[in-house]
Amino acid sequence: MPAPDPIHFDTLSLHAGQRPDPATGARATPIYQSTSFVFKDTAQAASLFNAERPGHVYSRITNPTNAVLEERIAALEGGIGAIATASGQAAMHLAIATVCASGDHIVASRCLYGGSHNLLSYTLPRFGIETTFVDPRRPEQFEAAIRDNTKLFFAETLGNPGLDVLNIPVVADIAHRAGIALLMDSTFTTPYLCRPFEHGADLVFHSATKFLGGHGVAIAGLLVDSGRFDWEASGRYATLTEPYAGFHDMDFCEEQGPAAFIMRARKEGLRDFGACMSPTTAFYILQGIETLSLRMQRHVDNTRKIVAFLSQHEAVDSVTYPELPDHPDHELARTFMPRGCGAVFSFSVRGGRDAGVAFIESLRLFSHLANVGDAKSLVIHPASTTHHRMDDQALAQAGITQGTIRLSIGLEDPQDLILDLNRGLHNASKLQKVSAA
Amino acid sequence: MDLKIDQHNCYIYTGSRPFDAAQPSIAFIHGGGLDHTVWNLLSRYFAHHGYNALAVDLPGHGRSGGALLQSIEAMAQWLLELLDTLSITQTALIGHSMGSLVALHGAGTFSGRVNFVGLLGIAVPMRVSDELLNAAQNNDHSAMDMVNLWGHGYGAQLGGNQAPGMWMTGGGVRLLERGADGVLYNDLNACNAYSQGLEVAAQIQCPAQILLGRQDIMASPRQARKLIQAITDVQTFELHPCGHMLMAEQPNQVLDILIDGLALARRTKMVA
Predict the structure, then answer these.
(1) Percentage above 90 pLDDT, chain A
(2) How close is the nearest chain A Cα to the Cα of B132, in Å?
(3) Chain B residues with CB-CB distance to A249 below 8 A
(4) B36 domain-assigned
(5) How many domains does chain B have?
(6) What is the pTM of this model?
(7) Could you tell me if A262 lies within 8 Å of chain B, comparing CB atoms?
């Protein structure tokens, strides 16, 4: 018998987690817009509550539509299971809350999405969880920051907004030698461009609002467990290795094996914090994932054309994109993201903040808003919006200047996008010339 | 629960309930390269419904120490020692794949100690391909991939897990990866070499249930026909859609069948 061939990515994008609906034969995943599910009898009800049988009880904890999405992203990432959450922020919080408590510590890349930075810098300390921020390009800083109470390393596959490419295996190795799990935000890359578990990451989350959905109509998050981290051998994770009075004294490592983390996250974090995804949102995200490969490739193809255009434009100071040879992580990007480095990047327009404002306000096709990963092209000025809470020093450390513009390249005809950008740059240049005069 | 058998630590998952000598017992025996966690739902159910659920980690597997046991016969003998250590005079045996051969051998050779046997994903003989054995002997990851993909029906490879949000084949391969080098080869070899299946089947005195996956290509229903004929008191169930990983692919169906089988066995014993 020949060795079996696993089902491939594009097929999983369409089918993973779903079989035609047994009740109706529906081919598309139905939206099970129901808060709760009828028990067959009292015995089955008791068994569901006591984790003796699988099944659905209440949509805050599980829902059939969400379950399809959860399986699908777990399959695409190469994980063992996933949890759909109300947002990417909720997914990040769920990951942290599952293993951290007051008195614990995180080592994080300092080049993060502003929302993640807020959570780690300002909100979690109020709950007794501290974070040390380090340069993602210097893995030794992760190691130096480890404390006895460190529970997680955290970084993005592509840092925000400088597109720092994390050397995942090196950082994962440092984490694992210390018995610490590596959590990664893979929003910018999606599993089509990078599968962090293959390089050593232990947990991945997405803001599914972005490329996974692709349509910009739903706020959503996904947390995925590789099932590979040995929580028990680490000795750092009491929430997973000791009986939990809040759920039948379950010792999750003992009972769930590789699924200890994701089961605890669902049985506790999703249950108690309640940041669940609505089934309708899960349906929207599933529609997006069905075309993930096609869209991501088009996003990347368009981005390459835009990057080439901007790189030679006289009104542009610099372009930051890892596929450019002068990007400090060019080689890492070739290794970890051979299909492309995504569709979000930044550039600096000559003339600083005022030129940047003139540029943005001249655009007609690009939408000025706080999002990325839409099918439509987007633009924003990070220093005054997503990263406005950071002081100049923190901004500089994150690679942001007052003239930095972030673009998220969509699926439009690239020639139309270039015309729009050219118009904006022309107006920015005019402003600069007036100032000079 | 941790015990000492032959001076080595033996781990038994008991469904989060203490062992109670006054209760009837069920020993659950996992398949090749796996551990007690494959029984987490079933063992938890029976532990909370009047049984001692004893989901063992065989020596060298999961949390149990000791050297790997190289034959099905040795595994059954170890199981008997475990029953002796716990002073269990009567038990049900439920095994999956390699564990089903251990349960079969135990039910036939110490038949006076066994009041019910559940055989999941069994084939007699349980031949293993040379390609798989060779890959396992070399501790090549492809061996785990073969077991994992052949082990799940095509439907399960696409998902639709009854356990919400869990990706079956992902979980399957991670569990296999947890085994030390040599574990999978040892177990596959033991399955391949076991030749007493039909002989011991004829000696079984208790009620038996055989649960098979219709899409199982590792232990196809066809390969269990002679076994079914050899057991005196047997019920056979062919689950669909289902491959070799019955407890993961059809957890509710498997549980319902075993609940009925164990209840019937207890009633039969009471009448007798």
Answers:
(1) 86
(2) 8
(3) 16
(4) yes
(5) 1
(6) 0.96
(7) yes
